[in-house]
Structures are given as structure tokens and as C-alpha cells.
Design goal:
mainly alpha; Serine Threonine Protein Phosphatase 5, Tetratricopeptide repeat; globular
Length: about 450
């Protein structure tokens, strides 16, 4: 009888309170938590962004702008513009959108829910940067309809590039407001690998990015230069403000270019075009830019499509395990200033140009006062070509060189030997995943030689 009564009690407990009897954590994967704190999202977003910007999105655009040359396999194909949708699939699907923009969207939402505008401001700057990278390389992209599902949806509608740019400026404006908030329930700190929670530097970056993206619109917005001028004084003031991620000596956390040249030795090397720009003739004597020894480990180049296997490799400043990846810099900002003031105040343009050159030399640790003096420009010698060429040299392995070339035609490039297209490409092909899973929304019949909206 006692046994029977005990059985009835147990049966009752099991049938009415199973959820409290079984440990609910048994079905939770500790490696995939359902919720992540804001502080745990920031560093992975930053590193993922720098990894793709210093990896695929450094190699492809910088081969096309002839800073580096591809010598073998896929890199050799890219050198002559033979690129497929699968070559860009990882950058789009597994870096920029997931986890990149998806985690950034989560960060912004959590910050808003938890009354933490400082985290929201950081997230908004990072989202604007992700969007800028993606739209500048592909044109129309998914954004407003891209994050409706729990982990993003695969059949998102595309926004026009013009609409995406409106979103970029809106995000940056909102970021500045959030970063200026009087208080924040949670505040960023050392988990922020870029600025360690320094909100002043994040605000400067928001303004610096506004300058960059306003400048991109110089072909389609007659007021672009005026808009750039309005934000310059709120942006960077020295190299200490540079927007960069520094990697570590651990291989799994090392610089992406270092990983690439370690695993694929001989795939990429110095392009003879950049080496030629790094060599100048002054008073009938040849002078080599001191940055040449930083960018490459020798002085032998390969022209695009030439496949010279004797060409020099990428230097240790950019291809060591702990080399930084630059996302935006004070040097770039000074060259932007030089361009926008060239037609209205040539003296200020020359001053900004000289400051940008000095900043670049200082950043690379190769300051040379006598060489610098021979390269300084004045109001009577400065030109747009000199500004963009010097900006191009300073922005080694940065995709911004691709945007500048499309906007201005500088530096003056020639098509690769053996090119599979009749002109140098002006955009990336849409990725394989979009064709397979979102073809109804993906723009059709787009060629890599077609211009994006702001380049038309």
C-alpha cells in the first residue's frame, strides 16, 4: 500500500511538473549561448571586420589598383580580373553579413534596450563602416530588410546604393548623439580593442568616416566638398587617433595577411607600379621613398599579369603576426582635407598634404627629414594627381585606394597583361550565396566593369 501510494505521488509529480524536475540546462549548448553581453560582442565584431578588411578585401582591390601583384593560382587569376562569385562568397556571407552586421545589429539593439547609448554609438559606427565597405564594393546591397529573422534572412530585398549611403550618414549622426549622451548604464572599456572605450576617439572616427563617405559622393553631389569641410575639425588630430585593430602573436589570432602569406607563400608580391611611385627623381638623382623598405622586403616588382616569381614579398610591418590593420587614419584625413581645399585654398591644401605625408612616414617609423623636405609641396606645385597618388602610397593594402581610383582616375593605371576584361574592374561580382538563395532580389546582369552609383 505504501509502495502504491508512493508510485501515485511520483506519477503526479512527473506528469505535472516535468519542467521543474528536468534540468533545463541539459539542452543548452555552452559553446553557443542564447544571449551574449554587450561587452562580449564588441571585440569579435572589431576583429572580424579587420580580418576581412586585411584579408580578401585587401588583396583583391589592391591587386586591381596595382599595389600588389598576384603570382599563383587564384591570386594570379585575380591579377588579370578573372574573378568568380565564389571568390567573394566568404567575405560577403561569412564576414560582412554573418557574423559582422548581424552581431552589430544585436549590439545596437541590446544597447538601446539596456539604456547604454555609449555601446549603441560604438555599434552604429561599426555598422556604418560595414555598410560602407559592402556598398562601395558591390553597389546595391541588402540592409533595411536584412535582419528581420533571428539570425538574419537569406531572401532580403536590396536597397539602392543611394539609400544605403543615407543609412550610413544616419547611423553616424545617431552615433555622435549617443556618444555625447550624459550617461550610460553600461560603459565600454578594455573589451574595445580599438580605443579601450575612449568615447572621444569614437566620436572623432564618426566624423572622419563622414568625411570619407561624403568624399565618395563627389561625382554625384555638388556639395560633397562643402560637407567634408564641415566635419574635418571634429575628426582626427594625430596618428594616435587612427582607427585600427592590432593582432597578436598567437597564430589563430594573427594578422590575416600574415596568415595568407604563411599558408600561400609566393601567391602575392610587390607590384612594380607601386614600386615605381616609391622611386622619385630629384635634381637628376634617384631617391627611394623610405616606406618602400616597410611595404616590401626588396625592390623587385611584378607588373599586373606578369607573374614574376622573383618579385619581393610584403614587408614585416604589414605581414607579421601582430601587424595592425588600418580601417581609417589621420593620414587619410589630411589627404581628404588637401583634396577638398585644392580649388578654394591651395595653401591650406598643400599644408594638409604635407601633414598627411609626414603622418604616414611617422606611422611607419621611417621619418626622414631630408627626404621629406624634398617632397613637400606648395600652393603652386600641388595638384589633385599628387594628392591622390600620395594618399594611395600611404593607404597600403587598404581598399580605399580602389574608391579613390574610381572617383578620380588616379593613380593612372594601365590594364593588366592578359586581362580577361577590356577595362580594369570597378566592382566585385555578387557572391554565390546570393545567386543560389536570393536570386529574386539580387541585381541581374551586373558586370565587374560596371560602375556603382556614385562612380557613374
Amino acid at each position: 500500500m505504501k509502495i502504491r501510494n508512493l508510485y501515485i505521488v511520483l506519477l503526479s509529480v512527473l506528469s505535472t511538473s516535468c519542467s521543474s524536475w528536468i534540468d533545463s540546462s541539459l539542452n543548452v549548448d555552452p559553446n553557443n549561448p542564447a544571449d551574449v553581453a554587450m561587452a562580449q560582442l564588441v571585440a569579435p565584431i572589431e576583429v572580424n571586420l579587420a580580418y576581412v578588411l586585411g584579408g580578401d578585401l585587401a588583396r583583391i582591390p589592391c591587386q586591381w589598383t596595382q599595389q600588389i601583384a598576384g603570382l599563383q593560382s587564384q591570386s594570379s587569376d585575380i591579377d588579370i580580373y578573372n574573378i568568380s562569385e565564389s571568390d567573394v562568397n566568404n567575405a560577403w556571407s561569412y564576414n560582412l553579413y554573418s557574423p559582422g552586421m548581424i552581431n552589430t545589429k544585436i549590439l545596437i539593439q541590446k544597447a538601446e534596450e539596456e539604456e547604454s547609448p555609449y555601446y549603441a554609438g560604438i555599434g552604429e559606427v561599426l555598422m556604418a563602416y560595414h555598410l560602407g565597405v559592402t556598398t562601395d564594393l558591390w553597389g546595391d546591397i541588402p540592409y533595411s530588410d536584412a535582419f528581420n529573422g533571428a539570425s538574419g534572412q537569406t531572401k532580403s530585398k536590396y536597397d539602392t546604393q543611394e539609400a544605403v549611403y543615407d543609412s550610413i550618414f544616419s547611423l553616424l549622426d545617431h552615433a555622435i548623439t549617443d556618444l555625447n549622451a550624459s550617461s550610460s548604464l553600461y560603459e565600454p572599456g578594455d573589451e574595445d580593442l580599438i580605443y579601450s572605450g575612449d568615447l572621444t576617439k569614437w566620436k572623432k572616427t564618426a566624423y572622419a568616416l563622414k568625411a570619407r563617405y561624403y568624399l565618395h559622393l563627389s561625382k554625384v553631389d555638388a556639395d560633397a566638398y562643402t560637407k567634408v569641410k564641415a566635419v574635418l575639425d571634429s575628426a582626427y588630430t594625430s596618428n594616435d587617433d587612427d582607427f585600427k585593430v592590432t593582432f597578436s602573436s598567437s597564430y589563430s589570432n594573427s594578422n590575416p595577411m600574415y596568415q595568407f602569406v604563411t599558408e600561400r607563400s609566393g601567391y602575392v608580391a610587390a607590384n612594380s607600379f607601386l614600386l615605381s611611385l616609391l622611386t622619385t627623381t630629384v635634381n637628376d638623382s634617384t631617391e627611394v621613398d623610405p616606406r618602400a623598405a616597410v611595404y616590401f622586403d626588396g625592390e623587385v616588382g611584378s607588373a599586373s599579369g606578369e607573374n614574376n616569381t622573383e618579385a619581393s614579398g610584403i614587408g614585416t610591418n604589414y605581414a607579421s603576426s601582430n601587424s595592425p590593420v588600418y580601417l581609417m587614419s589621420y593620414a587619410e584625413l589630411k589627404f581628404i582635407e588637401a583634396e577638398v581645399y585644392l580649388s578654394s585654398d591651395a595653401s591650406r591644401a598643400a599644408e594638409a598634404y604635407n601633414a598627411g605625408l609626414k603622418a604616414s612616414l611617422d606611422r611607419e617609423g621611417v621619418s626622414d627629414s631630408s627626404w621629406f623636405a624634398s617632397q613637400e609641396l606648395s600652393s603652386s606645385t600641388i595638384t589633385l594627381e599628387k594628392i591622390i597618388n600620395q594618399k594611395y602610397i600611404s593607404a597600403f593594402l587598404q581598399m580605399e585606394t580602389f574608391s579613390d581610383w574610381r572617383r578620380t582616375g588616379y593613380p593612372s593605371l594601365t590594364i593588366a597583361t592578359g586581362a580577361v576584361t577590356s577595362t580594369i574592374p570597378r566592382r566585385l561580382p555578387y557572391p554565390q550565396d546570393e545567386r543560389l538563395y536570393n536570386s529574386a532580389n539580387m541585381p541581374q546582369n551586373v558586370k565587374i566593369t560596371d560602375s556603382v552609383w556614385w562612380d557613374e
